[in-house]
Task: structure prediction
Amino acid sequence: MLQAIGLTSARHRGLPPAVDDLTFEAGSGCVTALLGARGSGKTAALRLMLELDPGRGITYFRGRALHRVAQPAREVGVVLGDVPGHPVRTARGQLRMLCAAAGVPASRADELLDTVGLAGLGDQRIASLSPGMDRRLALASALLGDPHTLILDEPAKGLDAREADWLHGVLRSHATRGGAVLYTTSDAKEAARAAGQVAGRVVSIDGGRLVADQDVVEFARTRLRPRVAVRSPHAARLAAVVSREARAARRSVEVVTEASSNRLSVYGSSCAEIGDTAFRHGLPVHQLADEVGDTGPVVSDVAPGGPASRTTGSGVTAHSGAAAPRTRPDGSGSDGAGADGSGPDGAGPARAEGSPAPNAAAKDLPPPIRRRPARGPLRPVRYELRRLFGVRTTALIMAVALVASAGISVLLARDGRTPLPNVLAAWPSLLPLPPAAICAGLLGALSFGDEFRYPALAAGRGTVPRRLGLLLAKLVVSAGVGLLLALLVVLASAASLRLVYGGDLIRIPPNVMSLGVSWSGLTVGCAWAGLLAAGIFRVTAAGVAAVLAVPVLMVPLVQRMPKAPTARSMAGLPGRLRELAWPHWPHETDRWLLAAVRVVAHPVGTALTLSLSVLICAYLFTSVRGRVRW
Result:
């Protein structure tokens, strides 16, 4: 069961809150529709329930708040908008990446592709999927962890009737198996149709406040009424004639004229009666069809501070003899009973011939996860590796770094004045950083791009910032990529120099260990700076800016620091550290410690160390607040 209590969004610039003291329930074994027009606060309510936006109130998922659920992906499946995956990633690669993050076997991806009808499109890229296929992939992402609760925001938006019927069947099947389903919609007929075959409810909101909380039968009785849709070039004359004849016959007929349209909606009459009236008065009719119309929400009287009462009235007043035609903000109802599948009362779908039974989709749902693997350090690493190497962007950036470094090293070695370490690193004095360091920072910044906001773990409340396992995995993987890129750049530069100028130019310097440590520290430090900055601001450009700020801002600042007239020497530091340490390390470690100290003492090393220290403190202050998890 899902219980939302007192949801109230934060105010912005003095405006009223998008959600104001909203309280309702979505029970297990039930499909609950959150109904409201555009701007009524449906999406804001879902984001408050998932703790994605600031506000007040709390939501319980089977008695537990979301921040107390150890693995949110296995309790809540979420579909918020389109799949925010990389456009060139394949559907199978996207699901396997999310499987690694949710801690489920990779074979689950193929099961869900078959379930949602994408078995033959597993190698299709996300950018090439149609809106219907994109919705199927989003639903598969939500079902990865076999969650008890499904929360979907406008799941049938942009789908045709066949795709919408399939989606509603899957939702009803999930509820039939004991799960809870909550989805938003702005179409009253869709709300009644989706929940019509199970014990469904419809929660109507307007202006962020609760309007009505009804079961689907009561909702269909009080809000959906049969009507006759009429389209005529002389709609005003036809409305007057129908109203006059209804008053003469003392029949309860209501005629509604839609604004700026030649269409009428007639309640309390039939197609035959409207057609006869138009024929007698010589008025042409271009459309005449039976429909189920939405009469609009009926606001219940709610005592201030008290619980919301449920709507029990009929929701519409039938006029005995229609008054003057008035404008009705309806606009919906373009689908009739035969077109949208609604039954006569609008409460449930009228099954087409040859369509599957209501619960036929239950056999199509993926089997439950019988054995859940234990959590471990390799699970977030697998996710990060799949995210990083699942697209061509990583390989393209590394290829650009190698090609640019090889070309720059050949140009630097031509004049013979540039030191060999700078030639191998392809670092001319004109550039603030070598191409390898810039590309390593870019790869680190991409770890917190828009793709991170994937739907399957949207309920994780910023999963990486509050999950130290995924954060450490990002740091480890980005450091490994930085080291690999540093090594490949040196090898590519050396091969280019040997090819162009011969092998006499390349000689191993005596301080190769110190140079190697400084080169590796530069690339790894830039990768971490980009990763942490992008994690703080949630923007990839912020990570790249933080990397470039090291040589542009921090290095000049370090160089302008006043120096003492008599500098003290740190000679003998490894020996003094050995005396303080309880375990005695081998003497070979002293060389590595001295190399690390020299790297930090360099202006670039000092600037990078200060930048990383500031970014780590800012990251801990802004992201890892409150209760953190592995």
